Amino acid sequence: MKKYDVCVVGLGYIGLPTALLFAKSGKKVLGYDVSADTVKEVRNGEKGKNEPNLNELLKECIQNGGLTADTTPGYADLYIIAVPTPFKNERQPDMSYVQKAFESVLPYITEGSAVVLESTSPVGSTVKYICEPLKEKGFMPGRDVFVAYSPERVLPGNILHELIHNNRILGGVSEESCRIIKDYYKLFVEGDIELTDANTAEMCKLTENAYRDVNIAFANEMAKMCQAAGINAWEVQKLCNKHPRVNILSPGPGVGGHCIAVDPWFLVSQFSDQTHMISTGRMINDSMPDFAVEQIMGILGDTDRKISVLGITYKPDVDDVRESPVLKIAEILNQKGYRVAIHDPLVARGRFSNADLEECLKDSDMLLLGVNHKAFLNLDLAFVYSLMRSKIIFDTRNFINKEKAEQAGFEYYLLGCGYQKTN
Ligand SMILES: NC(=O)c1ccc[n+]([C@@H]2O[C@H](COP(=O)([O-])OP(=O)(O)OC[C@H]3O[C@@H](n4cnc5c(N)ncnc54)[C@H](O)[C@@H]3O)[C@@H](O)[C@H]2O)c1
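That is the input. Now the predicted structure with nicotinamide-adenine-dinucleotide docked in place:
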């Protein structure tokens, strides 16, 4: 059976670009994914169209044979595991994907192989899900098979650039593991590669995301206070940030994606007695869709109205709707009885994005700006005005210029500013 240099397990947002950068550096790479559709898309060079330069690199690596995609694993010197780690009911981490992924490559592992877990995982996972099964097979992890945990910190929308330029943490289970696996990453990583142990690396990833979540929660709590006081939260943010040691993040409709909205729960489930601030922050961010709906209902009142949601993804300029707070807002509005139309130019038309711009806005009573995609920068407000029945804008991102909106004849409302017109 053919032996590859690298086998990347899971060809999703993280696995595919990682596989491509190894292929670009000259390695023969096998991309293994359980999803036949994903493998087909990769083979046909169709994946990654919304990620800068990814699709071009995919086509190049498929054509020159640097990347092979398959639904079965194979022999390789290095295995990178990049499968999902969502949470289950009761917000417990679901490690079954990692477990199954490693079980499926274990028969191909030989002495001298290296394994890196990249999936975001609870502290102790590398030892539990990689080292323990290796031991059961008679290998000494860190000596016979080199093992490390190396988390991803990339920003969707800029993944290739960040995979190359970000600093990377590499937590090996032995010094030799660190040394050998670092040499692989050095093939494409231009940032620093910081060496540590696997537990510390796992804790770093979860701590980074919990830090972001708590800071966003602070901004959202400020927005709630400002709303209650009839003050413009964005003005407070701007003025407070003139202080040399204050940097408040922007409030918003909540936190989505499958990282920041999920990973802090891993810490809460593992360290329940030590994570009061982290769990409170998570709950504040999860409450923001209801907070936005309360404001919207205060503006519109009667539920026999049409609301046009522009942007449904969890953040700007990506096609990912996982855990999107705007999706939750749309769902709650639907349940309340509003007619909700959704337009997102980055999401394929279907359940999540169900209308083109014109259809979405036609006879509408409110434009709800959900996500600040660049594509909405040149929104023609006169055109929008001509389509809508009631001329009301509710902006969850402080994205639409208030003065321009008012000049165009709209009533303009901003999340976290009370129901009155903002100053
Ligand atoms: N997407 C991000 O921006 C990001 C950033 C940092 C960390 N992470 C972490 O990286 C990991 C992967 O995330 P993602 O966004 O790439 O996920 P994804 O859902 O985009 O991709 C995962 C892929 O793994 C495949 N898969 C599932 N089980 C498998 C198995 N047993 N064997 C082989 N393939 C399997 C799926 O079919 C899918 O194609 C997660 O732990 C995530 O938290 C993601």
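The chain has a mean pLDDT of 95.
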